[in-house]
Automatic annotation (TrEMBL):
GO terms for cellular component: cytoplasm. GO terms for biological process: D-xylose metabolic process. Its cofactor is Mg(2+). The gene is xylA. Its main location: cytoplasm. Belongs to the xylose isomerase family. The keyword rRNA-binding does not apply. Binds 2 magnesium ions per subunit. This is Xylose isomerase. It is found in: Cytoplasm. Homotetramer.
Length: 431
């Protein structure tokens, strides 16, 4: 045991408490026939919680953690602290990149040896912990070798390094019982078209994805393969710009039945969408998988990865998730980091507790809206005309037949109100 969280007790549901406690998240509360814990499926992000030093584009490290350092001793201490926090929060899942959990070795083989030692530690800790692995992934963006991408790199040796890294991370995810494997194309994009062969890079990206799917089946991994869309940062233009772009790429390579998406709130905003838009689009296309729950600072205009605290925003996201049937293998991963001035251990616990409360409030509001039915009644009424046999027939007809019938009927369509303000008022009754 470490003493990093010394003096902090395991959190419990204790509304009205002035201390560290859940005010709204009761994991055993039943909503729409399911426990809140089973609805929300919370996960802690290893990278922001334990590996991020508190820097920003204009300044370096502000956090002073006892496990910081490029040694296996530090990595082992980091694992101890991580599982102690999982226990304090009683969180059901965590997520990691390979580079989050082990120091970089001088060679690929040395890095792999370091990685596998920490996976051994994780496996032992998970035997006595309630916390499971929601998903694993590979960091193919931080090291300078990936400055021009991983799968899309112009250097075939980097492509090979990336393929080998993905394999090791998939093996580890499978071994730990992970429920998904995520591909985030950190630098899969371009800075300038002046030195970029778009066609070649997209073909390389598609080939890597196909190999990932093939390997999933080869090793018998039953979890979902997820892609995380992001429009920019770190590259000027990312190939997985948003959900719709990901789906287009999946269709091109015949993988739309094999791969789903892990959607981040902050990335959705950077793409010019709302979080609920991206979730609804993924549901409509049949590729919804999981979410990274965070928020951006709308004045900053970039991906600030803050813990969620906006209940109305969160409620609309969970409304679309519940409407689509809820999570299966996915969940709510807090891809969020402390502000660089929040230095203390208690800040890390308080940030997660507040975020879990925010999500619980949002999900309960979303469930109440669905059970009330007013929004869905209004939606059905708006499209009711399409339920008639005559309207349905148009969808299998042709232009000339439709035009002839329309002229014969001599109908003059009249606009009908979309009632947006009325619907927004309904939402405001619940949030």
């Amino acid at each position: 045991m470490s003493d990093f969280f010394k003096g902090i007790d395991r959190l419990a549901y204790n509304p009205g408490s002035d201390g560290l406690a859940f005010q709204h998240y009761n994991p055993d509360e039943v909503v729409m026939g399911k426990r809140l814990e089973d609805h929300l499926r919370f996960a802690v992000a290893y990278w922001h919680s334990f590996a991020w030093p508190g820097g920003d584009p204009f300044g370096g490290q502000t956090f002073d953690r006892p496990w910081f350092g490029e040694s296996m001793e530090a990595a082992r201490l980091k694992a101890d602290v991580a599982f102690e926090m999982f226990d304090l929060l009683q969180v059901p899942y965590f997520c990691f990149h390979d580079a989050d959990i082990r120091p970089e070795g001088a060679t690929f083989v040395e890095s792999l040896r370091n990685f596998e030692e920490i996976i051994d530690i994780f496996e032992a800790k998970m035997e006595t912990s309630k916390t499971k692995l929601l998903w694993g992934t590979a960091n193919l963006f931080s090291h300078r070798r990936f400055m021009s991408g991983a799968a899309t790199n112009p250097d075939p040796d980097v492509f090979a390094w990336s393929a080998a890294t993905i394999k090791t991370c998939m093996d580890a995810t499978h071994r730990l019982g992970g429920e998904n494997y995520v591909l985030w194309g950190g630098r899969e994009g371009y800075e300038t078209l002046l030195n970029t062969d778009l066609s070649r890079e997209l073909e390389q990206m598609g080939r890597m994805l196909a190999m990932v799917v093939d390997y999933k089946h080869k090793i018998g991994f039953k979890g979902a393969i997820l892609i995380e869309p992001k429009p920019q940062e770190p590259t000027k233009h990312q190939y997985d710009y948003d959900v719709a772009t990901v789906y287009g790429n999946l269709k091109r390579f015949g993988l739309e039945k094999e791969v789903q998406v892990n959607i981040e709130q902050g990335h959705a905003i950077l793409a010019g969408h709302s979080f609920e838009h991206e979730i609804a689009t993924a549901n409509a296309l049949g590729i919804f998988g999981s979410i990274d729950m965070n928020r951006n600072d709308y004045q900053s205009g970039w991906d600030t990865d803050q813990f969620p605290n906006n209940v109305p925003e969160v409620a609309l996201a969970y409304y679309e998730i519940l409407k689509g049937g809820g999570f299966t293998s996915g969940g709510t991963n807090f891809d969020a980091k402390l502000r660089r001035q929040s230095l203390d251990a208690v800040d890390l616990i308080a940030a997660h507790a507040g975020a879990m409360d925010t999500c619980a409030r949002g999900l309960k509001a979303a469930a109440a809206m669905l059970e009330d039915g007013s929004l869905e009644d209004a939606r059905r009424a708006r499209y009711a005309g399409w339920d008639t046999p005559k309207a349905q027939k148009m969808l299998t007809s042709d232009l000339a037949t439709i035009a002839a019938q329309f002229e014969a009927d001599d109908i003059k369509p009249e606009p009908v109100s979309g009632r947006q303000e009325v619907l927004e008022n309904i939402v405001n009754r619940f949030v």
